[in-house]
Amino acid sequence: MSTLFISDLHLSAERENITKLFIAFLKERASHADALYILGDLFEVWPGDDIIQPDYQESISAMKQLADSGVAVFVMHGNRDFLMAEHFCEISGSTLIDDPSIIDLYGTPTLLMHGDTLCTDDSDYQKFRAMVRDPRWQQDFLSKSAEERLAIAEKYREISKTAMADKKMEIMDANQQAVESVMLEQNIQQLIHGHTHRPAVHDFNVNEKTMKRIVLGDWYEQGSVLSCDESGCRLESI
To answer: For residue 30, is it within any domain?
Structure first.
């Protein structure tokens, strides 16, 4: 048995193949796991629990079937789907976990994050993140009609695409000082996160301690999954 970690699927109507791959993954690979952790950006956009888009229904049903079979399914908010709440948990059978969270991974305390808060060099994004995570902004957004919310979400997607095209890749990556700071603050030597779409295993030393940072890839380029058991962790491509 193993524990699986994935992130950054960005499920949407435009990525039918990713939806098919995800459902197959849930029914086959994940069905033999102890637990599945989805560390953010499962969906390209989540405008609120009261607007379940038709293109998401099959994936959500497959998640519920997996959870009902006895596999624990944990989901973390990403920068695209941070409005998932109680109703999403009910219909998907999953449990929302905080960002960050610490788990015992076969005897190794492990810090789980989406990863966007580690990209501290991207000051414009951090300002945007602070705005949309403000409860007052969220309350105002959720008070709008479905059409208005979807239009706003699409506008932000286009702004994000334009901004990313103009930024250096290094700016959008995790800042090493931010990584070390959060790991020391949490007294943790192993970190797993997504967001940057740069799958890799980084080993480094801080204050004579050996640290490990495992980065999950996205699904529309890498099809990334991390499989962990008592013998260790392996970063794979599907």
So the answer is: yes
3-state secondary structure at position 142: helix
Instruction: Give the largest Cα separation in the chain, rounded.
Output: 54
pLDDT per residue as tens digits for the range 156-195: 989 888 877 777 877 889 999 999 999 999 999 999 999 9
Total domains in the fold of the chain: 1
**For the domain that residue 179 is a member of, what is the CATH number?**
3.60.21.10
Range of the domain at 74: 3-120+172-237
pTM value is: 0.96
Is residue 142 in some structural domain? no
The pLDDT tens digits of the residues spanning 48-101 come to 999 999 999 999 999 999 999 999 999 999 999 999 999 999 999 999 999 999
The beta strand positions in the chain, using DSSP E, are: 3-6, 35-39, 72-76, 95-97, 101-105, 108-113, 190-193, 200-206, 209-215, 224-229, 232-237
| 85-to-78, 82, 111 alpha-carbon distances in Å | 13, 8, 22
